[in-house]
Amino acid sequence: MKRYIAPLLIGLIGAGILISLGVWQVQRLAWKEAILAEIDQRILAVPVPVPVEPDPETDQYLPVEVTGTIGPRELHFLVSTRKLGPGFRIITALETEQGRRLLLDHGFVPTDAKQAERRSRYVTAIGNLHWPQERDRFTPENDPEKNYWYAREVPLLAEALETEPVLVVARDMTPADPTVTPLPVDSSGIPNDHLGYAVTWFGLALCWLGMTALQLWRISRRNP
């Protein structure tokens, strides 16, 4: 019996560690789902005026309503969506009646509509404040000369359009522009991979137990 003790202990201890990691990921999944539900609830709350000095931390996703005149200059951000395919986000300056200049993300236009004429107009936009974190080591550098942008870095956009570093991502615009499809803020872009991690750890635990059982079977087949 002594020859079974070491592999059995290794098998049980290893499986226990892997199962505990899987349980931890299940707990993290519940925690993350609660956070996402809270974010969704915040996104769809009653809109308020844009704060005088919004904070990127405390005011992220804040629902707002703003009225003003859209500037003629556009910034075009390359984007691809599952439903709409490849195209561009349209971002302009919006000047309010109080003289504030804010960034306004109108939404999506298909590639062939990138250069379509969109006149300046007076609008009311309902949306959310957003400071996206879209740049990583794989993101190409922006090309302002050709008006090809790849990451919505609010300070750079504000410098380019001479606005406050405040981005409103439109959910609804009045009057609406039929050539533009809003791409509102939601929680779908926030990673939530804990279920996949949990399945991986539990799967590894099952494999570990299977290898342990195989090792014990081989030991039993040896001559005493």
TrEMBL record:
Q: Where in the cell is it found?
A: Cell membrane; Membrane
Membrane-crossing ranges are 195-217
Q: Species name for this entry?
A: Aliiruegeria lutimaris
Any coiled-coil regions, as ranges: none
Record InterPro entries: Surf1/Shy1 (IPR002994), Surf1/Surf4 (IPR045214)
Q: Does the record's keyword annotation contain Membrane?
A: yes
Q: What is this protein called?
A: SURF1-like protein
Q: Which UniProt keywords apply?
A: Cell membrane, Membrane, Transmembrane, Transmembrane helix
A Pfam family of this chain: SURF1
Q: Which family does it belong to?
A: Belongs to the SURF1 family.
GO CC term (a single one): plasma membrane
Q: How does the protein's chain sit in the membrane according to the entry? A: Multi-pass membrane protein
Q: Which PANTHER family match?
A: SURFEIT LOCUS PROTEIN, SURFEIT LOCUS PROTEIN 1
